[in-house]
Each structure stands twice: as C-alpha cells, then as structure tokens.
Amino acid sequence: MVRRILFAVGMPMAGGVGLLYVMSVLKENGVWDVPTWLPFASTLLSFGTSALGIAFGTLSTSWDPDREGSFFGWAEVTKNWPKLWEEEGEERR
After folding, report:
1. In a 3-state reduction of DSSP, which class is residue 33?
2. Which residue ranges does UniProt annotate as crossing the membrane (predicted)?
3. CA distance 31 to 88
C-alpha cells in the first residue's frame, strides 16, 4: 500500500516541481515569457492530482493480506470502493 501511495503521490508532485523549474528557466533566459497564471494552474493540477493519489493508492491495494493485488489495481478499486461505503453506512446506523 505504501509503495502505491508513494508512486501515486510522488509522480505528479515530481512532475509539477519539474514543470515549475522548466518554466522558471525559460522565463529567466528570455526564451518564453510564461504567463503568470500558468505556474499557478500547473501547480494546482499537479498537487491536486497528488492529493487524489493518496485515495487511489489506498483503494487500489488489496486489503486481503494473503492476496497480492494487480499491477494497476483497478480490480481492487472496484471491490474496495463499495466496501468503503458499506462501512460508512453501518457507522451512521
């Protein structure tokens, strides 16, 4: 589970930081006058995707300790999502 979360959070975050660096270098060297809204939008998108990666990493992991999950985890997501809401409904009763 930790590997999936680290991957699902780390990749978008690293991409966002890398993109900010590239835009900074382009602007400092006068290659492209980056609009001020573009770093804001790319940061919002990349860090927002990282936040969703926490939920995806948790839901895409097999919750059965004896069973290894699939590579992308889609089968686990379709199984764990309803299970998560069943427990939520039971807590409200």
Report:
1. coil
2. 5-26, 38-59
3. 53
